[in-house]
Amino acid sequence: MANVVVVGAQWGDEGKGKIVDWLSERADVICRFQGGHNAGHTLVIDGEVFKLHALPSGVVRGGKLSVIGNGVVLDPWHLVTEIETVQKQGVEITPQTLMIAENTPLILPLHGELDRAREEAASKGTKIGTTGRGIGPAYEDKVGRRAIRVADLADEATLIARVDRALQHHDPLRRGLGIDAVDRDGLIAQLKEIASKILPYAAPVWKVLNEKRRAGNRILFEGAQGALLDIDFGTYPFVTSSNVIAGQAATGTGVGPGSIDFVLGIVKAYTTRVGEGPFPTELDDENGQRLGEQGHEFGTTTGRKRRCGWFDACLVRQTCVTSGVTGIALTKLDVLDGFETLKICTGYELDGERLDYLPIAADQQARCTPIYEEMPGWSESTEGARSWADLPANAIKYVRRVEELIECPVALLSTSPEREDTILVTDPFSD
Ligand code: GDP
Asked: Which of 97, 99, 412, 416 could form a disulfide with 329 if both were Cys (CB 3.0 to 4.6 A apart)?
């Protein structure tokens, strides 16, 4: 199969980086289709550590085309710094190896300022827990039809008109939050200065991807965050500001939905969440503590401690449906080593009734209590296992039960941070 979409099937941090890296070696084109530079992937290639936030994972591999699609919001200053950093590490980045969709909206410094001012003003319980990088406000401007897009950088008159339109909205908003008005001329000067560094990479991405697809190239669509943070299907309002589910790979790059052959959902063998919002299987006890410690559950970008809990099969079954997942990559199975008993959530109890999905209404979500099934754990180590034969019987039973409950097969199984410590069941790229 030629085109693969990778999506996180929980609240993000499922270990997409490792799997995307594994798949990007097999792909010809690697595309980002949503989110901003809040996604943090750390790639280790031949001992060299690359920290990527906005750039697709493929840039660090020679001979691949990396694409930033229109579904992304782009901070051009951050991108230029990131490009320079990886170039210093010996990676070649040229307009032949990196393309940015001309219709990609930009994140401006005023977006970050707004993001941070709002989070500071919010009271406990209403904070979204954003990374403060302006991603949400940039998406608001896109939908509000006042964004500055990559193509606007090419023409001074258009650029100035766009800035003025944006400031008509932002200056009154800033006044209300007690922030000074934007320095209009300074912003225009900054944009004109960065334009020459960004425009060489601008391209009609939808067209290029169509040509690549017709030429038989393998395209990998690299998702960031997770489906439970999707603006429509996530735990609203504690969600990200873009669509994260697999359909976004089409709208966020301009390929038709029929061009997607395989959707790989990345699923961690337990559950974590960063920041506020509902989390039915969250553990406030020593088991939660232990999952966090054994799983090193601290954010790559923010360093924030993640909330931890048992595997929620009910939620993953739901995200496998909304993303049309073909198969999952189950990660971090090794983190469950040594637990005497493991619990899996199979549904919820709400007002005396059993539900097989998480309702959308916030008050109902708050009243849902997980219904658990218990499974025996294993004392042996699964770390680094590369075949089913390396796994203890109870670990295999756990994986099989996960497949049954989420109604989706395992395509890949990951047993350590190392790329080769992976059990391959189905190659998403195989024809
Ligand atoms: P992403 O945002 O989805 O890529 O996830 P993160 O990078 O935030 O979290 C993944 C972390 O888990 C990274 O430090 C990986 O090296 C690590 N990791 C990935 N797969 C495995 C695995 O199977 N076992 C263990 N122990 N760690 C893993």
From this structure: 412
Q: For residues 308 and 175, state if they share a domain.
A: no
Domain boundary among 220, 247, 262: 262
Tell me the average pLDDT across 244-252: 98
Asked whether residue 119 falls in the same domain as residue 95, the answer is no
Measured by CA distance, the residue closest to atom 11 of ligand 1 is 15
> Nearest residue CA, atom 12 of ligand 1?
15
Same domain, 181 and 233: no
- Token duo for residue 79: 């991108």
For residue 389, pLDDT over 80 is answered with yes
pLDDT confidence bin for 38, thresholds 50/70/90: confident
DSSP 175: H
76 in the same domain as 189? no
Which token pair is 395?
Answer: 């670990």
Domain CATH for 116: 1.10.300.10
Please check whether residue 141 is in contact with residue 287, taking contact to mean a CB–CB distance below 8 angstroms: no
Residues 226 and 278 reside in one and the same domain: no
Cα–Cα distance measured from residue 105 to residue 398, given in angstroms and rounded to the nearest whole number: 44
Ramachandran category for residue 35: left, alpha or beta (phi over 0 → left; psi -120 to 50 → alpha): left
Whether residue 208 sits in one domain with residue 181:
no
Confidence of residue 126 (pLDDT cuts 50, 70, 90): low
Residues with Cβ within 8 Å of residue 377, at least 6 apart in sequence: 336, 338, 339, 340, 341, 342, 394
Q: Which residues line ligand 1 (CB under 6 A)?
A: 8, 12-18, 41, 300, 331-332, 334-335, 414-417
Look up residue 390 and give its two tokens: 């390396």
User: Can you give the residue range of the structural domain that contains 15?
Assistant: 4-104+201-262
Nearest ligand 1 atom to alpha carbon 8: 3
Instruction: Please give the pLDDT value at position 129.
Output: 62
Count the Cβ atoms, other than its own, within 10 Å of residue 362.
14
Q: How far is the CA of 344 from the centre of ligand 1 (A)?
A: 21
| Structural domain includes residue 235 | yes
